[in-house]
Amino acid sequence: MEVDWDGIYPAITTKFKEEDDSLDLKMFEHNINAQLDAGIHGIVLGGSLGEASTLKKNEKFTLLEKTLELVGDQISVVLNIAQTSTRGAVQEAEEAEEKGAHGLMVLPPMQYKADDRETVSYFKTVAESTSLPIMIYNNPVDYSIETTPNMFEKLLEHENIQAVKESTRDLTNITRYRNRFGDRLKILCGVDTLALESLLLGADGWVAGLVAAFPRETVAIYELARAGRLEEAREIYRWFMPLLELDINPKLVQNIKLAEVTTGLGTETVRPPRLPLAGEEREQVLKVIHTSLENRPELPRLSSQKTGSL
Length: 310
Hints:
12 helices, alpha/beta
């Protein structure tokens, strides 16, 4: 399936069983089905929100196999690659293609802070190892390495490097990319609290976090913005903002999993060293979630959802 890098791509959470820490594929399936019903456009597996650093390789590919089984040819499935070595990234890219992934999201080298030359070489080597389309994850805030427009100039020599998950928090980058690369580089917002602004500046999509618990609201913002119904989009986005701020927090995984519990789409179980929220911290997050649920807006019917059309 072709990846068009447009629309809502949930950075899906990984579900675990509390009793033995194994993958909870039943709850995972429940959440994926809710995402499909809401009209998402693709899925990103095994990302930061998916607790990538705690997943074994065979678990990532189990999630890939299960997701492909669930979505069929409805949407594209993108697997995250976050490796400490170029060789490891190449091996995972090759195996992902062999096992049926539709695309890859690739982080810069983990742990070692590569310079610009090393980072470009890393991404190029991965791109040369696979025919799969690639989205570069550009998040210097969390991973210390920025992929600049000058670096993208070199990377885009490879046809399968096609998109960027833009998480620098610098909205002007969207205009810089457009001015320099036109439509050659697809742009997806990677920061929930900047999503509507990014879409209005010309981003093609949104790799979303709170979508895991609120898929319909997330899709509605995208669809309304695309249709030019900006006042309706703003109204939902303003309601959504306290929840979206749970994503820009060191405990985003725990926050979002707790939100999934309240909407019936997940469990709180995380993989150590993470622990579920507790005490006052948990109560504060629950207050945000419950206040938002009490004021949950009525949504328009969207063409992307099974319930109707705009």
